[in-house]
Amino acid sequence: MFEIGRRNKVLNPSSMRTTYGKLMYLLQDAQNPTVAKSLGFSLHKDLVLVKPYLEERKCLDLLHDPRLECAVQYIDDRDPSTGQKLPREHVQAMVEGKRKVTEELVQIYGDEGKLKPEDVHRVVESLADAIAYIESNVRPVQQMLKYLEDNFDPEREDQQFSLALRGSGRSVYSSSSSLYSKYGLSAYSSSASEGPKLSHSHGTQYTFVWQSLRLWSKVMRHMHRLWVCADDDLLSTTSS
């Protein structure tokens, strides 16, 4: 039960905002040797991951089946390059194709005796959920990165589209200020009591934003691995 809750938190970070912390405190206390001995059993169980799950059942061939990529693909109803809505028929065709491939995998690997049909479904759906989480969180960051690269030149500063930050102890970015961009790209709101503390040129701020977006894209792409490492570290019984 506790493992299911931890795994649910990995795929749904916005859930269990208060209960997750309490759960981890409880499990950390239960990992204490004295507490574990008094309980007579352990509350801890490693997170169930797809590869170890298949390794235990000697069915790693499923991970290397080329059809698996189609079965777990993320289906977006918008064109990734233009952002335009795709025809409904096109999306439905992709969903149907994905369903058929999944059924093929279930028939092949669910009849070998190593895995039950529901086990194959669970593996495919787990991978599909993970990929959907990654794609839905990475794509917006990549889109913002594309907007930055398409609309701003780090070598050329346009006064109307400047990213420069000019540090100040007070607000100099009022609506009447000559330093205030009408698009608000480099300014705080006019109601702010203080201006930005950083002093970045247009090129420096461009690089700062570009690097931040690139970093966050990589972080989100590997977020599941980060969660697993954090879980292992929090519930480890050895000190390093």
TrEMBL record:
Pfam families documented for this protein: DUF2009
All copies of domain Non-canonical E2 ubiquitin-conjugating enzyme C-terminal, residue ranges: 1-238
Lineage: superkingdom: Eukaryota
InterPro entries, alphabetized: E2_Ub-conjug_enz, E2_Ub-conjug_enz_C
PANTHER family for the chain: UPF0652 PROTEIN C16A11.03C-RELATED, UPF0652 PROTEIN C22H10.08
Protein name per the record: Non-canonical E2 ubiquitin-conjugating enzyme C-terminal domain-containing protein
